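Sequence only, no structure available. Ideas?
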Amino acid sequence: MSLPLEGLVVVALEQAVAAPYCSSRLADAGARVIKVERSEGDFARHYDHVANGESAYFVWLNRGKESLCLNIKDARDAELLQRILAHADVFIQNLAPGAAARAGFRSADLRARFPRLITVDISGYGEQGPYRTMKAYDLLVQCETGLASITGAPEAPGRVGVSICDIACGMYAHAAVLEALLERQRSGAGQGIAVSLFDALAEWMTVPLLHQQYAARAPQRVGLNHPSIAPYGAYRCASGEQLVISVQNEREWHSFCQGVLQQPGLANDERFDSNVRRCENRVALDRCIAAVFLACSRDELTARLGAAQIGFGAVNSVADLQRHAQLRRQDVTTPSGLVELVAAPAQSTLGPRSWGAVPAVGEHDAVLRAEFGVEPGADPDQEMPPRDAD
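Reply:
I predicted one. Tokens follow.
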């Protein structure tokens, strides 16, 4: 089965999470992704060794790529990268601010030399503004954007437990690349794309920001509860497990009172007869719900919730996710053997896609140097003709 991005060449001067996320999704869709690494490799290779000896982050985000080790400060390696870029459709980089430009790979200069090239600069805080040179790691940006202030229990801010800033940034970059490829089909010209971790997560913070801006009060930390919908949160049942319930509208509220709490009159109690009132009287509401839940087994409650068509879920551990009946998995080959990953979220009627292998450091050095390199005795400044236009 042919893939939608087959024939496209992506060069990724990348490390860590955000840029590799973007390029890995392009690789999944059939693009040839050439990952440029230092001799010691992307530092994400060394975060841990939990995936059969490989780093969990690295195997997740680098499947299907070719690994090329270069020192871009070396003239011949820099020339080799320029020659590869003459054949590229997309160039992605997330080095430290200004590092790519200082090495001769400023995006605007590359687009001037290769007009069809789409360049993607991924940064922490963007290319303008007072924070542009600051280091930006996931936890730092979670704090800077205010996400930590609305996450966790009331007594202290909390961190979202996955690298949400990097993932959000990588997703926006991926979407922007696809749009740029479509635009290039019409115009024939590439474009420059810039995405920052801060901007990506700030956009996800729009609803809390609007509360702060127009109501002068951001949502408060409420643990496993929703700050502006009630009841929507976790309640403990008789056996000690927690169930999360979600009542989204008045129809569901009446059904919840009738079928789950078995107190139909509660639906019209003036303290609880609208979502606004239920949020204002959350303590009393939670007391009513807890009294019922603590008297019932998990099985009885799930039966009632299902019959009343109320949304609910379990407060699972990662171990519970590992054996979850709904979890789909897919194998990927790594230098240390097979690793089982979560399957791609989007499913197509064309069927599942196979994934390319995770490369070892510099695994494709010889092949790529032979394909794009300067022949012995040749002039390294001699232009390599770019591939034919689409």
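The chain has two domains: 9-205+328-372, 232-314.
Hope that gets you unstuck.
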